[in-house]
Amino acid sequence: MKSAVVFYSLYGSTKIAAQAIAQKKGAALYELSELRGKRTGIFGFIKSGFQAVTKKKTKLADYFTDEITACGAIYIGTPIWGGMPAPAVNSFIHHNDFSGKDVYIFTLQSDPEVENMSKKAFSYLLSLIEAKGGRVKGLFPLLGSSNEAPNADSIMEQVSKKVI
Ligand SMILES: Cc1cc2nc3c(=O)[nH]c(=O)nc-3n(C[C@H](O)[C@H](O)[C@H](O)COP(=O)(O)O)c2cc1C
Fold first, then answer.
1. Residue 145 C-alpha to ligand 1 middle, in angstroms?
2. H/E stretch holding 102
3. Which ligand 1 atom sits closest to the C-alpha of 10?
4. Which of helix, strand or coil describes residue 79?
5. Domains identified in the chain and CATH numbers
6. What number is the average pLDDT over the span 65-92?
7. Ligand 1 centroid to 2 CA: how many Å?
8. Res 37 pLDDT > 90
9. Hey, whose CA ends up nearest to atom 14 of ligand 1?
10. Chain center to CA of 39
11. Mean local confidence (pLDDT), 47-59
12. Could you tell me which residues come within 8 angstroms of residue 61 by beta carbon, excluding any fewer than 6 positions away?
C-alpha cells in the first residue's frame, strides 16, 4: 500500500516531523504552500491565530489530489494555532476524498502539555476526515519549538517513539 505524508509548516518543526515520518514509513512527502498572505510579524501571528480558530481555509499552490488518490495511507501534519489546525490543512482536507483510506494525524505545538493542547484540533480534524470518507487510525501530538529554531533531535526522537 502506497503512503504519503502531507504537511504544512510555518517555522519548520512540522516539516522536520514530516520528513522523519516519511523516512520511517517509506512514504512520499508533500508540502502544502499557500498562494497568498503574510504570516510573519505580529499582524501575521494575530491573523493566523484568528483564521485557525475560525476554521478558515486558504488557497493552496497544489492540493495533491492525484498523488493522494493513489495512496492507501496518508499522514497529515499541522502546527497548532490557537488550539486548532492551520488553514492550509483545512483546505487540503476539503479538496480531497479520503474514501477507504487510513489517515494518521500529527500535530506540532509549543505547549509541553501536547495531549491537552491538541485535543480540540484532533476532534475537528477527525470530523472533517470522516466526513470525507477516511478512517482515522492514529493521532500523534508532538512537541515542537515555540520559534523559528526547531529542535530537530527532539522531534526525530518523538517520531521514532510515538508514530506508528
Ligand atoms: C499563530 C500561532 C498560534 C499558535 N498557537 C499555539 C497554541 O495554541 N498552542 C501551542 O501549544 N502552540 C501554539 N503555537 C506554536 C506552534 O504551534 C509551534 O511553534 C509549532 O512548533 C509550529 O510548527 P511549525 O514550526 O511547523 O510552523 C502557535 C504559533 C503560531 C504562529
1. 8
2. strand 102-109
3. 27
4. strand
5. 3-162 (3.40.50.360)
6. 97
7. 30
8. no
9. 81
10. 17
11. 97
12. 33, 34, 35
